[in-house]
Amino acid sequence: MECKNYCVIFIIFAVAIVQAVGYDTELFESPPCDSNACFETLHGALGDCSCNVDTIDYFNNVKIFPRIQSLVSKDYFRFYKVNLKKECPFWADDSRCAMKYCHIKTCSKESVPGFDGYEEEYLEESPALKYSLDATTHCDQDSDHDPDLGYLNMTISAASQFEIAKWKAYDDSLENFCQCDDKDADAEFVDLSLNPERYTGYKGPSAHRIWRSIYQENCFRPKTNPYQSFPYVLSSDLSNMCLEERVFYRAISGLHTSINIHLCSKYLLSEKKIGFAAPPEGEWGPNLDEFQRRFDPSQTHGEGPNWLKNLYFLYLLEMRALAKAGPYLEREDYFTDSPIEDEETRNAIKNMLGVIYSFPDHFNESLMFNGGTQAATLKFEFREHFLNISRIMDCVGCDKCKLWGKLQTQGLGTALKILFSGRWDSEGDPGQGKLPLRHKSQKRLQRTEIVALFNAFARLSNSIRELENFRSMLSGNMEQEKKNIFAASPSIEITEKCASGGAKPRIWS
């Protein structure tokens, strides 16, 4: 009898542990609400800006989406150079994704259009080379030159040359908000059109640890946090943070939201579809249940709609960066060694930027980082936190997830660089598209940064467009459910199927 009592106590204790773990890793056991709850509050003002959701919906879906999707299909934007072999700098993790959908297809550098021009861009002149014998002008070649009177010692020691190179590297690093690894020996070209972003099956503790580390260790948070098991900041607590901290958190949340929408809209519905016309890699498409699982208010402490709003906020932020750097971007060559393709790309860039300039309610970055020493310290922390997040992308165990995580993180980092580095702030600055880009030192953005910036914005645009599809699917389900109820019993009054009530959230992977 005593043994049985111990067994009962042990079972109860085990169940308690499982429930506690489930609080961190699983969704509610109850099914998601079948209503349109995800979109009921997705209207009106975004907060921290003068724009609203409905304005962005129309502007994106009608004007931006078709343009940006066409643009990123151009050769210049299809190929992204990235190092996927870096070790995780924060923890030892051997949990690599073994599914075939996690793997990516790289391509040889010779197959990249305009590769010669791409490599020439990266042959940056070292500061030390400026003072070498070959680089200096030989004044004694002039017929009226007096060597004794005109002598100038132009030599610089090797140690001094090394120090000058360090100065340049330091100055450049102060502008960057994320790490760029396209110059690494292990960096390879990837054709993004052959490696679309979609659900690969990568999940579990490894994926959870990525986002937990980002939110709990690298995002600004209110000083009081009574919900340690819930890694996100509740929208009601955002008012306890300053503007800069809120912008950082909402940008990361918007990026996370966008990635989750991509996974829900390109979900593996079945390994193989029956029939001869079936695609060899299975059937992919929107998964409404998965979308509700990630965003329905009943599953997310009521935060799902706020996460969706953060997507719109990030869209606004990156669009402002494109507008701010627009005159510079209009002067880029977009070289692919095909004059016709290059001209089409430049025209498409100018056309899309012209539409972006016309947007009435751009994000106002000038309100941030004002206030002397304290603001400078906050800006430094802002940049350091995002640098850490870009390094965390090397800890992702799925190569395809890592590819798109690094690209979208670099795209956001490039946008932050444009908005907050100060290089685009000077009014009338001749570098804003007015200087001919004849020398590499005049380049403010490298090719990989431009590719990442436009592709990241294209992903946000695609996410907002996919929300329209999910909204239509949910509305269709509701109409069908009403018809089924009336058909079964027309006299029964239709009631809300989804009951309110708290339940345990899970880590959002």
TrEMBL record:
Q: Which GO terms describe its biological process?
A: protein folding in endoplasmic reticulum
Q: So which cofactors does this thing need?
A: FAD
Residues noted as binding FAD in the record, renumbered to the chain: R198, T200, W211, S253, H256, R294
Keyword Disulfide bond in annotation: yes
Localization in the cell: Endoplasmic reticulum membrane
- Per UniProt, what is the membrane topology? Peripheral membrane protein
The UniProt keywords, alphabetically, are:
Disulfide bond, Electron transport, Endoplasmic reticulum, FAD, Flavoprotein, Glycoprotein, Membrane, Oxidoreductase, Redox-active center, Signal, Transport
Q: Which residues form the active site?
A: C398, C401
Q: Which GO terms describe its cellular component?
A: endoplasmic reticulum membrane
The residue range of the signal peptide is 1-22
Stored InterPro entries: Ero1, ERO1-like_sf
Disulfide bonds listed in the record:
C97-C102, C398-C401
Report the GO molecular function annotations.
FAD binding; protein-disulfide reductase activity; thiol oxidase activity
Taxonomic superkingdom: Eukaryota
- Identify its protein family: Belongs to the EROs family.
Q: How does it assemble?
A: May function both as a monomer and a homodimer.
This chain belongs to the protein called Ero1-like protein
In its UniProt entry, the species of origin is given as Pieris macdunnoughi
